[in-house]
Amino acid sequence: MRPKKTRWIKCAPQERCFKPLCKPLSKLEDVYLTLDEFEAVRLACVEGLKQIDAAKKLKISRPTFSRILTSAQNKIADGLVNIKAIRIEGGCCKIAKRSK
Questions:
Q1: pTM (2 d.p.)
Q2: pLDDT of 78-95, one tens digit each?
């Protein structure tokens, strides 16, 4: 398997864990969302970018972006439907420097 290409994200999320109020964190199963999955959801769902434009921002191909977004959506759905904590960590990402 070839190494993953570095993905460029705008910034790290301010919160790294989201959990249901119904149970303490110690009693919940976890779903892990990588930083690039988080960024893909932000770009596609929050900013409303087309996949080709979002892929350019992450500096990856459009098919790769689609796979990352689908994986993120599946993990988020699993966390919401099955009452799991959603943690954001990991992935082969670097934070893009802001252009002046």
A1: 0.82
A2: 999 999 999 998 776 667
CA–CA separation, 31 and 48 (whole Å): 24
Phi and psi at residue 33, to the nearest 5°: -105, 125
Query: Apex CA 1: angle with CA 78 and CA 95, to 5°?
Result: 65
CATH dotted code for 15-92:
1.10.10.10
Give me the residue label for tokens 């070839």.
2
The angle, 0 to 180 degrees and rounded to 10, between the axes of the packed helices 51-58 and 62-81 is: 100
In the sheet that holds 30-33, the strands lie side by side as 17-18, 85-88, 30-33
pLDDT tens-digit map of 21-60? 888 888 999 999 999 999 999 999 999 999 999 999 988 9
